[in-house]
Amino acid sequence: MKANFTNVIENQFAVTGLTGGQSYEFRVTAKNGAGVWSTPSESVTIIAQDVIEGPTAFIDPKFKSATGVQAGETFVIEADYFGKPLPDFGAGLPAETAEAVKVSEAPLPPGKITLIDVTCNSAGLSWEKPDHDGGSKITCYIVEMQAEGDDTWTICSESKALEVTVTGLTKGKEYFFRVSAVNEKGRSEPKSLLTPVIVKDTSAEPIICLLSNTFSVKAGNDLKIEVPFKGVPPPTVAWKKDGNMLKETSRVNVQTSDTSSQIIIKDATRVDVGVYEVTLTNSVGNTSAEIFVNVFERPGPPSDLSVDEVSADFVSVSLSWNKPEYDGGAKITGYIVERKELPDSCWLKCNFTNLLDTSLEVTGLTEGEQYDFRVIAKNSAELFSAPSETTGPVTVQHDVEPPKIILEDKFRQVLIVKAGDLLKMEADISGRPNPTVFWLKNSRNIGTKGRIEITATKTHTSLLIRESVRKDSGQYTLTLQNTGGTTSKYAWTIYGKEILQEQRENKLINLNKPNNKNK
Which range marks the domain in which residue 425 is found? Predict the structure, then answer.
């Protein structure tokens, strides 16, 4: 059966109208210009189905290794591709090359150049890295110099570091310097030092530039002590604490540069308190400075809190206490008194202004109620102590104790004192509220005056007479008085070589002058 019904001139033809999966035999017959047909060709059997070949590509082997390209140059990769049906081409999924394609060029010039040191025959220079390395690693830096009056630049050093010391210079001469960066693609444009360098001896003794030599920190906080200094050449630095070499630990570190040294103390404690000494030394000389470090902590609690008086009339309680034994390294600046109504109330402040005294009368209480009291100390570092021990339950009601006098036995007897000697009488006293103290001689009040001195506290009183004379002889009475009552005690004094006759009925003393035999 014919597959074509028109003349086919070319040696290929697409047969259509076939059934997929069906097997067909094909043969071809040729006809010449005279109209004579040839014998048919051998037939071939073909199954009507798609023939598919996966796409393949061929890339020139030169692109399979690293390829260097100058910055700005056009880079083209070519490839041949095959497949049935013929594949489409365009931007597909990204693929990694076997090796990186590096685009590189000579680096940019180095950054800022700084003159760090000058001596009579050398100059120290430092510089910053280039902003861009050109796409490949900087291998070295070339330092050039030009002497004053010379038109040529001479390479004086090659360095992988960012600084160099140029030696062999002539004292008093002026030099210009410049630095270039080098990578595998070449050398950068040079970067020049802005000003010429005059070679001279600039050595200088170290100077410490410390604004304050006292540093304070709260316990648990970090402390940084920075000591700026000057010196040419840069000095070496040594630290001491309380006369001993400072030991660096996990908490205490020292960091030193050419212009400063600093101590960093982490989580400061009381052991960090002391005198620190920094010493700078160079070829010209040395200097040192002392630095005082304070570490502020919580003060200790107030002690010996006591109830001095309870008043139901004024519904108040008078308290007193002693200062903390430890102030936390800073002056005690005040106290907070707290009260708690028993049994279940919370602690409340009793004073709302700073309290400097070690006593307070707490008012505004309720008669018949029970209270507990405590005191908290504060220091100038604004740190508060733990509360003191409490007073224990205190009931707001009249608390009266009659006054009492406790005399030593010797004051219960007649005192014999020589003229010119010191006469001292004293007694322990008690009572609530605190009693008023009166001293009397021969039933007349006496007070502190001239040779006589009277002292009285809550628990003790004394009478002191200096350089006693005959008229000091007599009956002395100590009287205490409070709302609970009045009490008195008596003592008699007589001067040596005088005879005392006591009339017990009226407590009088008769003094007889000594006779001539006793003189």
Answer: 401-512
